[in-house]
Amino acid sequence: MPDCPQQKGTPSNSRHEQLLSARIAFFTTEMNLTPQEAAAFWPVYNQYWEEKEIAHKRVQRNMRALRVILKEKKPNYEMSLKRIMDAYITSLSVEGIINRKYFEEFQKVLPVEKVAAFYKAEEDFRIKLIYELRKGGENRVSK
Predict the structure, then answer these.
(1) Domain count, the chain
(2) pLDDT value of position 77
(3) Whole-model pTM above 0.85?
(4) Are residues 105 and 115 in the same domain?
(5) Are residues 69 and 117 in the same domain?
(6) Range of the domain at 84
(7) 130 assigned to some structural domain
(8) CA atoms of 101 and 6, how far apart (whole Å)
(9) CA gyration radius for the chain?
């Protein structure tokens, strides 16, 4: 089993492990990875995932701050609003930079067709999770 993305500082739980295992299985199947390709891909993917998680948490943190500022409307809140909006837009830009960086990195270890299949699999997996969560099914992350 390849190394899988880990959330640092979060206790490992069965639901999280189940989701990671499902993601690995889904991507491997959808991308039709050979064992050699998988061995090269997963370490790069793990770095990508870690950087994306950090960036996404920054986006979320900035959005929470934006909500607080809008709700409280303290004196001179416009200055705070401009500052946090700038931070929010910057954090969104960082996500784009990460995506660009790893588009290049993935092409170093996989043919472009499999890189394209990765991005498709990533979106398909996200949609599948949303569907299964809405459905409320017992086996939410199975293929």
Answers:
(1) 2
(2) 81
(3) no
(4) no
(5) no
(6) 35-110
(7) yes
(8) 20
(9) 18
